[in-house]
Amino acid sequence: MWKCSHTDQQLQQKESCKHACNDRFKYTHVLNTVFVGPEKWAENFPLANGPRQSPINIVPKETQYDPSLKALKLKYDPSNAKGILNNGHSFQVDFVDDTDSSTLTGGPISGTYRLKQFHFHWGASDNRGSEHTVNGIKFACELHLVHWNTKYPSFGEAASQPDGLAVVGVFLKIGAANPRIQRVLDAFDAIKTKGKQASFSNFDPKTLLPGSLDYWTYEGSLTTPPLLESVTWIVLKEPISVSPLLLIIKNGLLFSGEGEPPCCMVDNYRPPQQLKGRQVFASFK
User: In what residue span(s) does the Alpha-carbonic anhydrase domain sit (predicted)?
Assistant: First the structure.
């Protein structure tokens, strides 16, 4: 079994496996000596240079407290969890979304948004991995819970609308072991390579949330191509903890498919983008 841990030999393997990544977009910076990291995404996806791109660097002293922002209401039905997938860029846990049994309401949004999936972004080392940063500080990992606006008939149609999606972002910091994440990690052997999927049922995403739901919010985009500018971002201020060992285990996933040269799934995050005049609001003083 391929393990993307941090021995010298495996680091060499990780370096060589970068050359195996040849999808339409990649996070790796070398492909047959050609740079193909996020800074090059605009060549295939011009919206990468759009006016409301994500992620961003959040500067708390420059955010604006908005007393009209409501408390977040997250109602998740554990029985809606249906599967876990290696999509070649991250892993995602998918949810049944044909009813309003798992929803997000309140906060900065109007109406009801259904949970579609959650996924993570992380780094090759513990000092990077989050997509959003706070005062330039990177966290080890970032969880995204993706919801779509039920005023539209489907997730696909919502994803192309300015108010179509709402994503709750949660930072993960290095600290105590987190048993709430272990169940997700235990499923990784079944989805080691791109395209692999497995059943994943009876899981409550609320167990991955911190005690405080204070948040920052702004109008942004998907952080992976096609980078559609359809996301109301809700970034929680309080991180949850994860042990370094769990992050190493997580680094065992591959960008590459079965039978391809192994390309370790690490550093799957987009750097912060320019605000371009947008205001970030806070639900707290």
Answer: 23-284
